[in-house]
Amino acid sequence: MLKTKVKEATLKILTFPLGNLFLAVKLEGVKKVIPVPAIAKSGNKLLGITNFEDQEIIVVDLHQRILNASNAIASRYLIVIQSELQALYGIPVISLPEMLEVPISTIHPIPDDYRNHDTLGIADRVTQISVMDKTRTIFLLSSGSIVNFIRKEKSGY
After folding, report:
1. The pLDDT of residue 153
2. DSSP 110
């Protein structure tokens, strides 16, 4: 008797390094990955603005937010994501993001108490995958978490 293998449900993500961390966004929320355009920022702020397809979008400098070091000079790509409310946001990254498909059963929520007190407070889920015999921890960002972060930053201006 043949065993039928049930395919496990997966989630497609776009992952990118940030210092020694790996972050990711759901692929379905990614509008486009483009070469990084000019980003206007006033001073040493976490938020900037750029033009994408004839509209202004907010750019979130996660390097500065998480590592306290702006990556404006080193960034080569901009991940343009779309929130549930259809607003567009950009995340500058140093290297071309990698698409992965991870089993949903390996994705776990980050407890609110930890998330609210951690530098990486905008990640709401975490997964671990094996890459070349090493375990890689990937923190998943939701567009809702990014929008909430932007709102907090805007209110601090």
Report:
1. 64
2. P
Beta strands 98-103; 10-18: pairing state? antiparallel
To which residue do tokens 């949903």 refer? 104
Rounded Cα distance, 77 and 79, in Å: 7
Give the predicted TM-score (pTM) of the model.
Answer: 0.84
- Would you tell me how many other CB atoms lie within 10 Å of the CB of residue 156? 9
CB within 8 Å of 126: residues ≥ 6 apart: 107, 108, 110, 137, 138, 139, 140
pLDDT in tens, 5-38: 778 899 999 999 988 889 999 999 999 999 999 9
Which DSSP state fits 120?
A: T
Taking alpha carbons only, the member of 16, 19, 140 closest to residue 69 is 19
